[in-house]
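Pasting as-is:
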Amino acid sequence: MLDIKFIRDHQDLVAAAAKKKHVDFDVRELIEADDRRKELLQSVEGKRERQNAASLAIVAEKDPSKRTSLITDMQRLKTELAKDEDKLAAAMKTWQLLMLRAPNVPDMSVPDGVDDSGNMEVRVWGKKPEFNFTPKSHDELLKLNDMADLERGVKVAGFRGYFLKNDGALLNFAIWNFVIDRFRKKDFIPIIAPSVIKREVFMGTGYIPQGEDDLYKTQDGAYLAGTSEVPAMGYYMDEVLEEKQLPVKFFAFSPCYRREAGSHGKDTKGVFRIHEFFKFEQVVMCAASHEESVRLHEELTANSEALLQELELPYHVVVNCGGDLGLGQVKKYDIEAWVPSENRYRETHSSSYFHDFQTRRLNIRYKDKEGKMRFAHSLNNTALATPRILVSILENNQNADGSIRVPKVLQPYLGKDLIRK
C-alpha cells in the first residue's frame, strides 16, 4: 500500500504506474474518496467536541429550564453525530478498498508490455543439450522410470493430483538436501513456515484482493499459502525493529497451494503446474533505501542462479514488463530453465522487490539511527520449488533409452549417478 500523502503529491506518477501495469485504477477516484473521508472526519471530530462541551455545560447548569434546553440541543447533536459516524464508516470503507487497489510505482528500468510476451531477456547461461533422438517429456520420463503415478494422483487428489514415488521421491528429497546445504553457508535464518494463514497477512503481502481467486480458503476464513513469502512476511507484522537487525534474511520452507485459477487448460500433464507443491523461499526485509533494495534484489537472484548452475541446467533471466508485474512489485526478474521437449524456457524462479508496499500494509517498522520510525523495504525470491524443477532436470539429462543422468551435485544425496527402472 502506498502512502496517501505520496499518492496526493504524485498523482500523475501513480496514474502512469497503473497504466504501465495495465491495472484498472483511477487515482482521481481515490483522491475524491480521501477528500470525502477528511471532510466527514473533521465534521465528526467537531461534533464530538461540541458534545463533550455540552455535557459539561449540562452538569454545571443550575437553572432547570436552561438545563432542559441544553439536553434537547445535545440529543439533536447526538443524532446528527450518529448519522455522520455512519457516513464516515462507509467513506472509510470505500477509501480503504481504493487504497488497496493503488499500484506501486515500477522502476524506470521495467519495460513496457501487456503480458509475459513483453518480458525482456537480460542474460543467458549454459549450453542447451543436443540429442540424436527425439527428447521425451518429463511426464513420459517419470512414467517410464516409475518415478511418479499421475493417474492415481488424480484418483486420490483430483485434477492436477500426483504421487512421486521411488527415485522420483528420493530425487525430490535429494534436491531439498542440496538446497539446504547451500543456504546453510549463507547468512539466512532457516524457518519452516505455516501454510494456513490469516486473511490480513494475505492483504498485507498484496495477494488479496488481486490474487484471491487463486487461493484455497478454509472453513474458518483462513487461506492456504501459495508461497512461504506470505507467512515469512507476517513474522514481524505490527512490530518495530532496530536498524541494526536489518537486513533480516529468511530461508523459508513450506508446503504451498494454488488453485491455478484461469489455467485450466495449461500444462495439464506432469508436475509443472499443480495444486500442491513445496518451496524454499528467500524473504528479506531491509532498510528503507532504494539502493539497498536493488543490491539485495541482485544478490537474491544470483543465489538462485548459482543453484541452477550447480545443477547444470541451461536458463535465462528476463526482466518482467509492466503488464507482468504484480500490484506491489517495483521490479521483478523471472528465471526460466530450458525444457527440451517444448523447445523453450519455462519459469522456475521469480525475484521481486517492493520497497515499503508490503511493510506499510503489515505495519513493519524500524527505528533508524536518528530514532525516526520508518517502514522497512521487502524482497522475495524463489530459492527452489519442487517438483517443478524436476521437469528441467529430467529432460535435460535424459538418455535415448529413457534413463536419467543424475546431476553431479545431487549424486551424493541420491546415492547413484543414473536413474533407470
